[in-house]
Design a protein that fits this description.
seven-stranded mixed β-sheet, globular, 5 helices, alpha/beta
Length: 230
Amino acid sequence: MPRFGTVFWTPGNHELWTTSADGLRGEAKYAALVRVCREHGVVTPEDDYRTWSVAGETVAIAPTFVLYDYSFRPDDVPAAEAVAWAREAGLVCADEQVLHPDPHPSRADWCAARLATTEPRLAAAASRHPLVIVNHFPLRRDQLRLRRIPRFSIWCGTTRTEDWHTRFRARVVVSGHQHVRWTEWRDGTRFEEVALGYPRDWRAEKGIAHYLREILPGPSEPHAEPRYHG
């Protein structure tokens, strides 16, 4: 911590898993993680958004947590059959066993509750400053890179965030769920997938500088095709 001015945190699915170490489930698990972060001065999705000025512009940095609701699926697959559809391809995310939505009836219901809490805060912040939105899960289904496991898409986000970058004046959107690092522009907004992935995905000989991404000011020239960062 002493080497960083400010640390921001937003949970991914793994952090929310219930383990034998603590036994906490759902919102209780999330609340416990938020408490630990605050004890160390880390900014969470439950805290006020911080502002930062760079290149003559002030932006608000918005860490968010909205989970997923199985809506990243084909139109002809009913929501109730989404997990079975993925299972047909031999896919079942571990979340189905260890990411509990308590006290909500389902993960989709928890996602809806998080959206209801988060969107008004983003709207209020965007009325004052452009945003940097940071969310573990990608905001848009059309930005998924799941070539080997396309049906894993149902555990990757919600269609209800697909217009956030324009609705909330995002300068940059940062995500990290896919383990494929890339940069892409949409509607004048830069999207950065920054996941380090698993140790098997790292190239130690490239050094840490290869894996760091400058969010702002960052690259200013949009490119027609995504840039991949191996």
